[in-house]
Amino acid sequence: MSLSLIKINFTTRGVMICSRMNVTDAIAKILAEEGVEHLIGFPSNPLFDDDAAEEAGVRPIVVRQERTGAHILDGIARITSGEQVEAFACQHGPGTENSVGGIAQAYAESAPIVAIPAGYSRAKTNTDPKFSSLINYQAVSKTTEQLTDPDAVEETFRRAFQTARNGRQRPAVVEVPKDVFHLDAPDFDYETTSSTRAGPDPHAISEAADALLDADLPVLYAGQGVHYAKAWEPLTELAELLEAPVATSLNGKSAFPEDHPLSLGAGSKSEPRQLNHFIHEADVLLGIGCSFTKTAYGITPPTEDNTLIHSTNDPGDVDKDYKSDLAVIGDAKLVLEALVDEIGNRVGDDTDFGRYDDVTAKIEEVEQAWLDDWSDVLESDETPINPYRVVKELDETLDKDEVVATADAGNARDFMAPFFEVTEPLSYLGWGKTTQLGYGLGLMMGAKLSKPEKTCVHVMGDGAIGMTGMDFETAVREDIPIIAVVLNNFEMASYDTPFSGHYADFAESMGGYGERIEDPDNVADAIERAVEKTKEGTPVLLEFLTAQYTKLSRPDLE
Ligand SMILES: Cc1ncc(C[n+]2csc(CCOP(=O)(O)OP(=O)(O)O)c2C)c(N)n1
Ligand SMILES: [Mg+2]
Question: CA triplet 345, 224, 256: central angle to 5 degrees?
Answer without folding.
Answer: 60
